[in-house]
Amino acid sequence: RAGVSKATVYSHYNSKVALFAAIVARRCGKMIPSLAIGEFAALPAAEALSRIGREFIALLLSPDAISLYRMVLASATRFPDLGRAFYAAGPDRISAQLAEYLRALAANGTLDADDPRLAAEHFFGMVLGHLDLRLLLGLTQTLSPGECERQVAAAVRAFLRAYSPIGAAPIPVARVRP
Question: What is the pLDDT of residues 55-75, one digit of tens each?
C-alpha cells in the first residue's frame, strides 16, 4: 500500500516485530491524546478527576482499544518488545500525565499522595474495575453510559477519600444512583 519495497520498509525496522511494535505505538499515540493538565488545574479536584475518568473509560472501552488490547495480549508473550511498546505508548504515558496533575494537587495540599505515580495507577484501576475485563472476555458487548458514569463517580469518591489529607474536610463528590 505504501508503494515501497520490503527492503525499504526493513531499512527502517530491523524485524517484523519492530515494525509491528511501531504500528502499535503509533496507534496508541493516536488513541490516547495527552491529558491537558493545564485545563484541569482551575477545576475542583472532584470535577477534574471525574472528567479524566470519563475520558479514560470512554477511550479504553472503545471497540478500537479493546481490539488493540486483545491483539497485544495475544502476542506479548512471544514478542515482549511489542508489549513494552504498547505499555510505553499507552498505560505508562497516561499514568505519567495523571501523576503530574496529582503531584500538583499534593503540592497545594489538596491530596496526600507521597507517590503520585502509584496514586495515578490506583485511580485508573478503580475507574476500570472489571468493565474492561467483561468486554475483553466477551461477557458483554457494550456498557451503558449510566454504568460507566456510576463507575467513574464511585472511583472518584473512593480515590478522594483514600488520598485526602488526614483531618481535612472531605471533598464533595456527586453520587450517581443506579
Answer: 888 888 888 888 888 888 898
